[in-house]
Amino acid sequence: MSHRARQLRVSSLARVEGEGALRIVVADGHVEEAQLEIYEPPRFFEAFLRGRAYHEAVDITSRICGICPVAYQTSAWNAIEDAWGIAVDGRISALRRLLYCGEWISSHALHIYLLHVPDFLGYPDAVALARDERAIVERGLALKKAGNAILELVGGRAIHPVNPRVGGFHRAPTAAELAPLAERLRRALDGALATVTWVAGFDFPELEVDCELLAVHHPAHYAIEQGEVVTSTRVAFPPRDFLDHITERQVPHSTALHAEMDGRRYVTGPLARYSLNSAQLSPLAREAAAAAGLAETCRNPFRSIVVRAVETVYAIDEALRIIGSYDRPDPPAAETTPRAGLGHGVSEAPRGLLYHRYELDSEGLIRDATIIPPTSQNQAAIEDDLRRMVSANLGLDDATLTTLCERTIRNYDPCISCSTHFLDLTVDRR
Amino acid sequence: MEDEEGVGAGMTSLAVWKFASCDGCQLTLLDCEDELLTLAGQVTIAHFLEASSQVLPGPYDVSLVEGSITTPADAERIREVRAQSGALVTIGACATAGGIQALRNFADVEEFRSVVYARPDYIDTLATSTPIAAHVPVDFELRGCPIDKRQLLEVLSAFLVGRKPDIPDTSVCTECKRRGLTCVMVADGTPCLGPVTHAGCGALCPAVGRGCYGCFGPMTGANLPALTGQLRQLGMEERAVGRVFATFNVTAFDGRARNESPR
Fold it and tell me: How would you write the pLDDT of chain A (430 residues) with one tens digit per residue?
C-alpha cells in the first residue's frame, strides 16, 4: 500500500468566494504536489485602470470583490491621497474606520457562520445546520445584518458602496442618523460575544504556521484602515516600500500570483493581525480572547475562526466607540487637486493585507496600477499547510483526507475572485 | 426575453452559478438575512457552491447565473447549465452586459494579458467578455452592479408562485422623484446618468448628493444623445463623457449609443 500513488482532487471548492480547485499527489508516502488551483477567469483590472480618472479607482476596484469592496476602496484612496500628500480630517478618518468595521463584521459573520462553521460541525452548509440549530444560525445572520447596516448607512450600499470617495465622503451622516445604528450594534455585541464562546469550544486539528506573519500596524489602534506594514521578525516599512520587500511570481496552475517577502514565505490575515497587534484590542475584545483560550499570539490556522470572532467583537465595540464620539465632518471630503505623482496604500481586508499602487499623471489619470490582494499572498502558505496536513494524516481514507484539505483551505477565507488576475511586476524564476 | 410566466413556475429547486464576476450578486442572496432560511424552507437550494458543499444533480427549476463568459471552458459550461435549467435568470451587470471586464472588448486583449501576467501563455482567455444571453436563451435579466436585494426577492417570489416579476423598466429619475430628492443635476449642476439608467437601486447616489454612475445600465429607450449633450454643457470634457458610460455596463451603453444615436 505504501507504494500506491494517491491523488486527491476537488474540482470545485465549495464555501469559498470564487472558483478554485484542489489537487494533491502522494507517492510512496510522500506528498509530491499540493496545489490550490485558481481557475477563476482573469478580469484584467490593472490593465483597464490605465487611462481612467483617479476618482474612478474607488468605484472600479470595488468591483474586484463583492465580499470586501470597502477594502479595495480604502486601499485605493489611501494610495491616491498618498500620491498627493492629502491628510484627511480626523473626523473623516473616523467615519472611514466605522465603514470598514461594517465590512469586517459582515464578512467575518459570513465566513464564520455560513462558510466555516459547517466544517467544524459536519454540515454541508448553514441551511442544514439551521434545521438543527436555527437560533444559532439566526444569530449569525443578525450579526451579518448589523455589519451591513453600517455599510448601508455610511456607505450608501452594502455591496459596492456609493458614498465614499477620494478625500472622504459625498455626504456624512448626521449624529441622529447614526443613533439607531448604535442601538442595533449594542444588540449585535451580545451575539458577537456569544459567537466567541461558541466557536472556542470547537475541536481544532493541530497545525502551526511557522512562516512570517505580515500585517498593517497603527500606533493608535488595532490597524484596519491605515498604517505601516510590520512582520513577526520585526521588519517594519511604510506602504511605499511594499514592492521592495514583496515580490510576486506566476505559477502555471493558477491565475493568481504567488507572493514572497524578501524571498521568504509569509502569511497575512487574522492570525497575523492578531499575533502582531492583539495588545491593541479593546478591553472587551481582549477579555473575550482570553476567555476563549487565545494567548497573545495565535498560529494555528484552524483557530482563525476564534480570531475572526474576537475581531468581530472588536469591530462592533470600535464602531460603537466611533458613533459615541461622532463629530460630523464638514465638509465631508478633503479638497483634491490632481497632479502627477506615485502613491501607495494598504489596509486590512477581512482576509488580509491589500496593497494598491497608482502612478498618476498631471490630470489625475491613472498611468499604471498595481494591486496585490491577500489571497494571492497567502496561496503559497495555504499549499504549505496542505502539504503538512496530508503528510501528517496519510492514514486517513481519501474522502476524509480530502475534507480535511478543504478545511485547511477555508481556514484562510480565501477570496479567489480577488486573488486572480493581478500585477505587472512579475519576476519569473523558471 | 421570452414569456416569463410559466417558465420555472412553482419553483421547487434553485441553483446558483458563477462565471467571471466579483461574487457580489450571489452574495446578495446571502444578504437576504431575514428571508434566507424561509426561502430554504420553500425550495431546495440544490447547487450553490459559494454557500454549500452539497451539490444535488439537476435538472433545476430555476438557475440564477452570475458573471460573464470570458473563457472557452465557460462558453461550454453555460450551455450545460442552460440544459439543466427550467428557467435561467441572469443576475447583475456581468451576466446581463459582460461587466467591467468587457472593457477588454474595446482593447487589445493580448496587451491586457501581458500587462497583468509575466507568462501570458498560462492564461486561457477569450478576447471578449460577453453576457450570458449572447450564448444561451435567458428567461429573465436582473440588472445592477450589484443587483438590488429587494428586486432579487421580487424575482424569486415571482418564480415561486409562477407570475411575472414586477421590475419596472424606468429611469433612476423616477426613483429619485418618488424619494422626494432634489435633482442633483438641475439644482447642483452635478453630472448624473439617472435620466438614462435603468431603475432598481432606489436612487442611492442622488441620495448622498452624487450623480448616478450607471450601475444598472441603460433603460429601454434611453435618450443618450440628449444626456451626453447635457453632460457637455455641464462642463465635462469629451473623454470624461466617454468614460462615464464605459464602466460596468459598457457593452449595453455602447450598443444603445450605436442603435439609437441619430448620428
Answer: 444 678 888 777 778 777 788 888 888 888 888 888 776 777 889 988 999 999 999 999 999 999 999 999 999 999 999 999 999 999 999 999 999 999 999 999 999 999 999 999 999 999 999 999 999 999 999 999 999 999 999 999 999 999 999 999 999 999 999 999 999 999 999 999 999 999 999 999 999 999 999 999 999 999 999 999 999 998 899 999 999 999 877 777 666 667 889 888 899 999 999 999 999 999 999 999 999 999 999 999 999 999 999 999 999 999 999 999 999 999 999 999 999 999 999 999 999 999 999 999 999 999 999 999 998 889 889 989 999 999 999 889 888 988 899 899 999 998 776 655 332 222 222 2
B146 reaches A (C-beta below 8 A): yes
Residues 6+ apart with CB under 8 A from A310: A196, A274, A281, A285, A288, A289, A292, A294
Asked if the A45-381 domain carries CATH number 1.10.645.10, the reply is yes
Domain of residue B243: give its range: 172-260
Q: What number of other Cβ atoms are within 10 A of residue B200's Cβ? A: 23
Task: Indicate whether B148 and B40 sit together in one domain.
Answer: yes
Tell me the residues of chain A between 66 and 105 that have a Cβ less than 8 Å away from chain B. 66-67, 69
Total domains present in chain B: 2
Q: What is the CATH number of the domain that holds B111?
A: 3.40.50.700
> Judged by CB atoms within 8 Å, which residues 196-255 of B form the interface with A?
201, 204-205, 207-210, 213, 215, 240, 243, 247-248
Domain end marker among B161, B191, B208: B161
State the residue for C-alpha cell 501570458.
B120
Residue spans of the domains in chain A: they are 45-381
ipTM of the complex: 0.93
Residues of A in contact with B31 (CB under 8 A): 144, 148, 158-159
State the DSSP H helix or E strand holding residue A9, giving kind and residue range, or none if neither.
strand A6-10
**Cα separation, B46 vs B52, whole angstroms:** 9
